[in-house]
Amino acid sequence: MLDIRFHGHSSVQVTSEGHSIMIDPFISGSPMAATKLEDISVQYILLTHGHQDHILDAVELAKQNDATIIATHELATYLSWQGVKTISMNLGGSIKLPFGKVKMTQAFHSSGVVLDDEKQIVYMGMPGGFVIELGGKTIYHAGDTGLFGDMKLIGERHNIDLAFLPIGDVFTMGPEDALVAAEWVQADFVVPIHYNTFPPIKQDGEAFVAELAEKDIRGKALKPGETLHLP
């Protein structure tokens, strides 16, 4: 049994049998967040890439929970300098953890922290996604990405129970490409993410789910704070 709680944007919390992980925590700066950061309890924090709308609350959440952050080497190193526990990994690599297994997949995007005061951008390694094995289920969080052909391989090599796919367009896939991605990854269930947080990425999640249904793919547009139970 998995409890999947959507915190808005790309922030997803997955809990099973006392283990809880958070992917891309963006709570305090998100206009969509329905939960206070101090009310979230996790042991691990997975970061797909180094943009502020994915890592903003990673350090604070790690400190309040004594949690471990998992990210690419550059991003993990940068965050470790801020006094938190980290595990470095990179694209194609996998690690075993007390709750199961995490594999980092490729994504086509960018990754860097913008330091406005210094007018500098700090490179944070390659962007990625995650295939997560937890509670007897397999979850794919695509991260921020455009459509790419190797999504077919991800679907062929993993029996994915649940996929989180961005649909916001402009910075990631839009709904049309995300529909193709949903077919390629062959997930039993699809949840759209990374949309409606800001005006440029406004999309109709319900319409996307309806189009999934036309392809015989189950899905749901979760509201921030809503929980999905996966038996």
TrEMBL record:
One of its GO terms (molecular function) is hydrolase activity. The keyword Cell inner membrane does not apply. Counteracts the endogenous Pycsar antiviral defense system. Phosphodiesterase that enables metal-dependent hydrolysis of host cyclic nucleotide Pycsar defense signals such as cCMP and cUMP. It holds the Pfam family Lactamase_B_2. It catalyses: 3',5'-cyclic UMP + H2O = UMP + H(+); 3',5'-cyclic CMP + H2O = CMP + H(+). InterPro entries: Metallo-B-lactamas, RibonucZ/Hydroxyglut_hydro, UPF0173, UPF0173_UPF0282_UlaG_hydrolase. Belongs to the UPF0173 family. Keywords: Hydrolase. The keyword NADP does not apply. Residues 8-194 form the Metallo-beta-lactamase domain. This is UPF0173 metal-dependent hydrolase AA984_14800. It comes from the Bacteria. It comes from Brevibacillus formosus.
